[in-house]
Each structure stands twice: as C-alpha cells, then as structure tokens.
Amino acid sequence: MDYEKLAELLFPQITKTPEEYEAMYPQRDLPEGAMVTRLGPSPTGFIHLGNLYGAFVDERLAHQSGGQFYLRIEDTDDKRFVEGAVDIIINSLRFFGINFDEGAGLDGETGAYGPYTQSLRGEIYQCFAKKLVADGKAYPCFLTEEEIAEIRAGQEAEKANPGIYGAYARSRELSFDEIKERLSRGESYVVRLRSEGDPDQGGEHVRKIHVRDAVRGVLEMPENFQDVVILKATGIPTYHFAHVVDDHLMRTTHVVRGAEWLPSLPIHVELFEKLGWEPPVYCHTAQLMKLDEEGNKRKLSKRKDPELSLDYYRNQGYHPAAVREYLLTILNSNFEEWRMENPDADIDEFAFTTEKMSNSGALFDLNKLNDISKDVLLRIPAGQLYDFLKGWAEEFRPEILHIFEDRAYLEKILDLGRNDKKPRKDFIYAQQMVEFISYFFDDMFKIEDAMPAKVPASDVPVILQKYLEGYDHSDDQSQWFDKIRAIATEMGYAAKPKDFKKHPEEYKGHVGHVSTVIRIALMGRAQSPDVWEIQQILGEERTRRRIGEYE
Ligand code: GLU
C-alpha cells in the first residue's frame, strides 16, 4: 500500500507539513530547568476545587523555575461550550492568586504557541494525523457502531479483550481502492492508530512500558495494543491525540493532570513514540477525597458536595490566602512543618516539589481549612481585612455595604482581641465574619440568646437599671468590673465564681451570671469578646441605649 497516496486521499486540504509546524513553534528559549506547564480545562463554566488544586501545582512548578504557565481550552469533546466560560476560569483562578503567562485570555490570546483553543487547531491535528497515515501508523476505519457492537459481543463470547485491535481491526487491511471506493460513497470513518502493541495481554510475555511520573516515581504498565481513535468522524481529535500534539507543539515540559488519566497513559506513550517525539514529564495528581459522615473516604462529588465548586469559597468569602495555605498543606506533606518554622514567611518562599505530593487520595477537609483560615486571617492587618471584606460584600452582600461607611469603627471591630498575648481567632470567612460582628450595627443587632437560668426574670431589669445608673464610660477595665461585682454582691450573687461553687446554697448565682445579663443586653449573645472593650468600640451612647432598651 502506498501510504503517502492514502494520506493525500484522506487529507487533500492539508498542505502544511509537520516540519513547518515544528518551525513555527520552536523550542522555548528558557533558562535551564525552567518548566512549562499548562491547565487544560474544558469550558463547561464549572470550575472546581480539582482544577484549582491542579492549577496550583502547575503555577508553582512554572513560576518557581522561571518557566511559563499557560491556559489551553480543551473544547474538543461534546460537552457544551458555555458562554463566558473562559472568563470564569481566568477570573476564578486569579482570585486565588493563580495567573497565566500566556494562552487563552479575556481579550483574545497571548503567546507564540497558539491558537490555545483546541477547536481552532483542527488543521494542526489533521496535519499530524496525515503524517501518521503517510507513515503507515494510522489508518481510516469504517466500522459502524453496529459492527463495533457485534465485534464486542464476539469478544465477550470468546473472553477476548474488548476493543478494536489486531484481527478485530477490520479496516486495517483495506486496500487503497477499497478505501477510495468507500470514500466516494460518502461513508463516514474515523482515523485510528495502528498500534504495534501485543494484544496478548494475558500472556506472560506481555511487554511493559516504563514511564517516570514526578509524583509516583517510575510506573510500569502494560503497553497499549488498542487501535485507538485519534480523529473522530467529524475530523475532531480525541483527547489522546490532542494532548500529544498540543503538549509537544506548545513545548510543555510537565503535564500535571488527574489520576483518572493514568489508565490511558500507555496510549499517549505510544502516540509520542509513533510521532517521534519526547514525552513530557507526567505528574498524575491524587484524586481529591473527603471523609463522609460514616468516616469513609470517597471522591468529592459535584452533586453532593457544594465545596467542590470554587464559587462556594467565593460566596462564603474565604480569603484566597487561606485557601492557598490550605491547598499547600494537602499538596506537600512537608508544608505544615515549614510553616511552623517560618510562621511569617511569604507562602511563595516555600519550595514546592512534586516528590512531596501524595499519590493516594488527597483528603479534603473543610474543618481543617477553617482552622487554617483562622490563623491566616490573624496575620492579616485590620486595614487589609476591611478591604477584603468590603470587596466581598460588594459582590455578594450589597445590602450590608453601610457597615463600611465608618472605616475606623469597622477596623476597631476587626482588631478586637487580636493583639492580646493570646490573640482571639474569631474569623474564618467573610459570611461568618459579618455574622460574628453583626451586633456592632444597630440594624443587624438582635437578641439571640436567653438570659442565664440562674438569674430570675425579675432580676434582669434591676441589674440593668443599676448598671446603667453606675455606668461611667471612662472607667478603666478594673473599675468597670468592680462595679459589676458590687451589683452582684448587692443582689445576692457571689462576687467570685469559686465562692458560688463552694457554697451554692448561699447565692442565686455568681458575678459571671450578672455580667452575662449585661452581655446579652449589649450584644444579644452569651458569648463574645471582652465586654469592656466592646463598649469602648460601641461608644457611650450606643452602650447606654442598648442597656436601657433591653426588654
Ligand atoms: N481537558 C482535560 C480535563 O478536563 C485536561 C486533562 C489534562 O490536563 O491533560 O480533564
């Protein structure tokens, strides 16, 4: 068979040669050791934690090594291309501090290795498919769905491996004239790889391939033997083919992708080999898992776990620094230790490595994120927290924007108890912060907790009345508390909790119960930061009003 002639017959419209593309996309001029990574999301409009997790690895590898990180839109599958999806991807990742150097962009693309959208690369894929056909390494396959189903049924009966390969690949041996004839009849076909793998996979002598994975070490896998489809009947490439062609021509050095691609790795290895190209270094990342209610590990699911969506973190108002910090703790096993040794260092000073990545499931845990977030927010000055919170509210809670009118007031609130020896860690994410500080604002203030059971209802107005009468806004903390003690004693409550513990029969309760009455009148809650400090922030007028108006 004259394969060159066959290639011309199949792809008359392809006039560029592989060499021309090689010249158009030369090796990148980068320093030794610089890594080129990419993110290849499909534009479904849904960007999830797994994307961020992978993007984080890509970004770190590229930017730590002085390389390039680019965005490629993988829109060759039949999934819907959602309008604005590219913006969503770029903006969501930017929010978390992940920026691309080149690739698909908000206003057109940047970079010399494009187009960066797979649907615009049709001619490129066809050019290389043509080359494979011309080399006798790929062929047109006319099998219909019915024929494929019939082959599969036969394989099941024979207990043979399923798929199109070896003798089952009936189009392999078609003659040039037969192919020409079928084409002239308008028969539809796909282009398949003519695999040289040994289909006898059950046999002892099955050939193995060895691939170095930066996360998993050297992988040993059976070689591919399937005549996989490289171009679909529409002329659109499959993931396998697009990955190989794109990552070669875009000069990607490290392919970071989910472990779900591991089973198809032998296909990619064979494709690289047949095209005569060096494969990139693969980094197959662990699946994101969570512990379910029963304590079992399972994959995060779009349907069951709202926290899989990145929108979740933005709506809730997680600070991007907290999410980054958390991701690093699940990405690199030595990060937490580093953080302990370098509590104030910029996170980018941490040397991220693929070797320290887990290769079994990475466990995602919201509680852990929340704990980390508390520490991260503690390190952020009140002024910056104010800006962050305001930015979030503008997008997600415009109805509370009035709380930002008095900057000094809100900054004092945000700093409350944070400069103590043992600083308070009250803040986790914006939604929770607003809830936490809501009592500082009259329109959001509400009585949430009941008065302590130890205090008879008739005592409440008396305590508040006495408190109001003796209130002096300029009292220092100890003068202020002495007055509460005096009220307690006068009304039959122990001045110290331990006295009450010793002789409960002698008292109604203790000073803590009395101060809780005041706390609830002021804040609506039985738990809060220091009351005296809160009063200093609320100011005299508001303090008196709340005590006076409680009923
Ligand atoms: N488009 C693929 C996906 O969405 C990308 C996989 C890869 O990074 O190679 O999973």
Please characterize this protein's 3D structure.
Helix content is 42%, strand content 9%. It is mainly α. Among the domains are: 5-11 and 125-285, Rossmann fold (3-Layer(aba) Sandwich), CATH 3.40.50.620; 446-551, Arc Repressor Mutant, subunit A (Orthogonal Bundle). The strands form five sheets. It has a three-stranded parallel sheet with strand order 1-2-3, with helices on one face. Helix 9 (265-275) links the parallel strand 9 (254-258) and strand 10 (281-285). Helix 14 (382-396) crosses helix 15 (407-415) and helix 17 (459-470) runs antiparallel to helix 18. It is elongated and about 110 Å long. The chain starts with a helix and ends with a helix. Glutamic acid (GLU) is lined by residues 40-42, 74, 243, 257.
